[in-house]
Design brief:
Layout lengths: L5 H10 L7 H10 L4 H13 L3 H14 L4 H10 L6 H12 L4 H14 L3 H12 L6 H16 L2 H8 L7 H10 L1
């Protein structure tokens, strides 16, 4: 497989901080090189930032089919599944993080697991360790801290409203699940 087109990748990355959507650029990159997970991940990130969680979930799930070890796509997918209807899937999605050999991935998985299990003290310990880890992605920590506020306030309704109320299970997620089991 050829590497991602550097020019398309640079255009997508440059547009992430822009006020306009990078979805058209990422879509063009996907059309040119549909085998690269990075373009689905970037387009999904753009969709999530703009509040289109269904489209974001579909892109993150596709990125995971193409590259199952893409940690950030997995985390973004998990964050997009933080709705009452989709929350049960999160435990399945967490497994690769919890079983990872890299400590950073384990910490991300542990934080989410402690959040799911309503264990605020353990959750806060993992967050503190993540905040001291130079390789930790600040946006992921920010998302975890948003979850922490919902944990301390027991505000799952608020969490659902912050994410999305769509309850459709992506066909791509089902494919991932079937491949793993």
């Amino acid at each position: 497989m050829q590497p991602p087109n550097a020019e398309l990748l640079a255009q997508c990355l440059a547009g992430l901080d822009a006020a306009t959507s990078i979805a058209p650029i990422a879509s063009a990159a996907i059309e040119a090189q549909p085998e690269h997970a990075i373009f689905y991940f970037l387009r999904g990130t753009d969709h999530a930032a703009r509040g289109d969680m269904l489209a974001a979930r579909q892109d993150f799930a596709t990125a995971l089919v193409l590259e199952p070890e893409h940690t950030l796509a997995r985390l973004q997918y998990i964050f997009c599944c933080m709705t009452p209807q989709l929350l049960p899937m999160v435990a399945v999605l967490l497994q690769p993080l919890l079983q990872a050999t890299a400590r950073l991935e384990q910490l991300y998985g542990q934080a989410l697991l402690y959040w799911l299990q309503d264990q605020p003290a353990e959750f806060q310990q993992v967050i503190a360790e993540l905040q001291q880890t130079p390789a930790a992605v600040p946006a992921v920590i920010d998302n975890l801290l948003r979850l922490q506020s919902s944990l301390t306030q027991n505000d799952t309704k608020g969490l659902a409203e912050q994410t999305n109320d769509g309850a459709e299970v992506s066909a791509v997620l089902l494919e991932i699940y079937q491949q793993k089991h």
